[in-house]
Amino acid sequence: MKAQILTGTLDSHGSTEFYRKAVIFFQAAEQFLIDKVAKVLRLKSRRQETELAVKADSVRSVPYVAVGKVDKLFDRGFGFLTSSSDLKSYFFHLSGLQGGLRWENVKLNMPVSFVVANESTAFKAGKAIQIRPYSGH
Question: How would you write the pLDDT of the chain (137 residues) with one tens digit per residue?
Fold first, then answer.
C-alpha cells in the first residue's frame, strides 16, 4: 500500500497527495518522538552521573577545618570563600567571623581558615563558619 501511495496509483481525486503528506507527517512525528526520548535518556544519565559525583564528594565528614581565600564579597554582610585544597565554593555570613576578624577588615583574596559546616554540591555552595584570618603557619 505504501508503494501505491508514493507512486500515485490510488485514485485521481487527489487523495494520493493527501496520503503522501500523511506519511511524511507521521515519519516526522516519529523522528520527533525518537529525538525527545533520546534527550530524556541523556538528561537522566547526566543526572545519575551528577548524583554519583555528589556522593563521591561527600565521603569526607563535616565539620572539618579548611584553608582558602575570600572569593566574593557582598555589601549585605555575606560572601563566598574558595578552598585551597579542592577549589570548592563556600558561603559565609558576617556572623561566622571569629578571631578578631571584623566585616570591615575582610578583603578579596584574603587568606582565611574556616570550618566547613555543610559540604558543597555540584549545584550549591557549601557553608563556612568560624572564619578566621590565616597566616600560613
Answer: 444 545 555 555 557 888 888 888 888 888 888 888 888 888 777 777 776 665 555 555 668 888 999 999 999 999 999 999 888 999 999 999 998 899 999 999 999 999 998 888 888 898 999 999 998 75
112 SS3 class:
strand
SS3 71: strand
**C-alpha to C-alpha distances, 102 to 80, 91, 96, nearest whole angstrom:** 16, 17, 10
Residue ranges covered by each domain of the chain: 2-57, 64-133
Which of these, 57, 46, 49, lies nearest to 124 by C-alpha position? 57
- Selected from 1.10.287.4070, 3.40.640.10, 2.40.50.140, 1.25.40.10, the CATH number assigned to the domain covering 64-133 reads 2.40.50.140
Q: Residue 52: beta bridge partners?
A: none
At 41, list the grid cell: 535518556
74 closest CA partner among 92, 58, 59, 89 = 92
pTM of the predicted protein model: 0.54
